[in-house]
Amino acid sequence: MGRRVIVVVAGVLTAGSALADWTGQAEAGLVIASGNTETETLNGKLRLQNETDSWKHRLGANGLYASDEIATTAKRWEVFGESEHSFGPKTFWFGAARYEQDEFSGFEYQATGSTGVGRRFIDTEPTQFSGTLGVGYKFFETPDVFDAAGLLVEQGGENDELIFRGTLDLEHQFTETTRLVNKLTAESGADNTFVRNDASLQVKINAVLALAVGYSVRHNTDPPEGFKETDTLTTVNLVYELK
Known about the structure:
Elements: H1 2-14, E1 23-33, E2 39-51, E3 55-67, E4 72-86, E5 91-102, E6 109-123, E7 127-142, E8 145-146, E9 152-154, E10 157-173, E11 178-189, E12 193-204, E13 209-220, E14 230-242
Antiparallel strand pairs: 1-2, 1-14, 2-3, 3-4, 4-5, 5-6, 6-7, 7-10, 8-9, 10-11, 11-12, 12-13, 13-14
């Protein structure tokens, strides 16, 4: 059910902009260690954006994979889309959707669709700061959880709930080559509140390449039994500007 909802909403978000030009960024980082320990870590991000007089569309994807000599330790991917329609220089409507699979969060998947209003608090050449507030619906699935003896501790299953969604987005250009990007997202429902903050400092190498240092915090207030509430991720990625 959740997957079908995301496909439908994503189609709506991108409708009307298929013929327009898109810009964005693609970034990736890879770490491989061998010798006394064998580890591999790969993460990637894709951001696309299209903007007209009154409409703004965003599409993106994230992926993370990590393993050591024993087993896979992280495996997560996410796709998302968002559209904004401006009613004036500062106020806009938004519609958003995301779908995520993360084998190590305790959730088989989390899928949300939401809509609401937003406000551009600061919109200058060096600084853009905006926020949104809205409502939506979340679909998620949790697995069965067993103890060490193989006894069922918590039964999983598919669930859905009404959520309230809020975001804060900040971009600040310190110099011609250095930029800070921070995005805070919160999705709050009766069963769980999901909060994520992604911060990235980007330094340009040339016209199309940059080096990005990122720090991401993900928090679920009520994860399934046996799973931690908070995950953090530090990345050093090469960024390619798509023009």
